Amino acid sequence: MPAEPSSHRPSLPAAPIPALAESELNQPASRTDLFISFTLLALQGFGGVLAIVQRELVEKKRWMTREQFVEEWAVAQIMPGPNVVNLSMMIGGRYFGLGGALAALAGMLAVPTVIVLLVAVAFNSVAETETARGALRGMGAVAAGLITATGLKLMAALGRNAMGLPVCVALATFTFLAIAVLRWPLGWVLLGVGGSACIYAWVRLGAQSGPGGTLPRGGAV
């Protein structure tokens, strides 16, 4: 007798999440929504919030497009203070002004601060043990993996950058080598590489907006 067909079908790979258009975006309903959303986001950020913030703000809540996230995250990184706190205040301020910025800031800091203080008190008694040190090293490796995965996911947004994908990849590679390999001071790298990138992007945008000026496909910001 012929064998019966298996009832288990091979699983298909998940389809990639399509890029959002600005017309498809949502927005926070209120300052309370901002506070609760950023509190929940902060409580998920073990090892750094970058691995979570893009998924929550772009893919789930749809408050911003992937391209907007990349651009605003870049601004948040070069400003003083924690990157994700800067980003939360930028988003809150965009929708509800100063009150929205303060609500987002409170969401990012209030509950996590209490938890960190409690954990610090509890961890103080075991901080010198080899088990605790090993656990911290393990969590550090996981955090690095999460950040790397998020960076790879966001690379698709660079295809719509004004500078073009090849230039963006070259700048990212040079920045990595300068910081991680050559150990150049961060301030000089930001001024040199970041300043050069800003000037080049400004020139490209001028070419796009000028008479007859065009950019390669996908080269719009």
Count of DSSP E strands?
0
Radius of gyration: 22 Å
Order of helices and strands: HHHHHHH
Mean model confidence by pLDDT? 79
Model regions low in confidence, pLDDT < 50 over at least 5 residues: 1-17, 215-221
Number of domains: 2
Q: Tell me, briefly, the overall form.
A: globular
The N- to C-terminal Cα distance equals 62 Å
Largest sheet: none
Helix content: 55-70%
| Count of helix runs | 7
Strand content: under 5%
How is this structure best described in words?
- This protein is 65% helix and 0% strand.
- It is globular.
- The chain has two domains: 130 residues, no CATH class; 61 residues, no CATH class.
- Helix 2 runs parallel beside helix 5.
- The N and C termini lie far apart (62 Å).
- The protein is built from seven helices and no strands.
- The protein is mainly α and 221 residues long.
Tags for this entry?
2 domains, 65% helix, 0% strand, disordered N terminus, disordered C terminus
Quickly describe the structure.
The protein is 65% helix and 0% strand. The chain contains seven helices and no strands. It has two domains: 27-156, no CATH class; 161-221, no CATH class.
List the SSEs and their pairings.
Blueprint (H helix, E strand, L loop, with lengths): L30 H13 L6 H11 L5 H13 L4 H41 L6 H25 L10 H17 L4 H24 L12
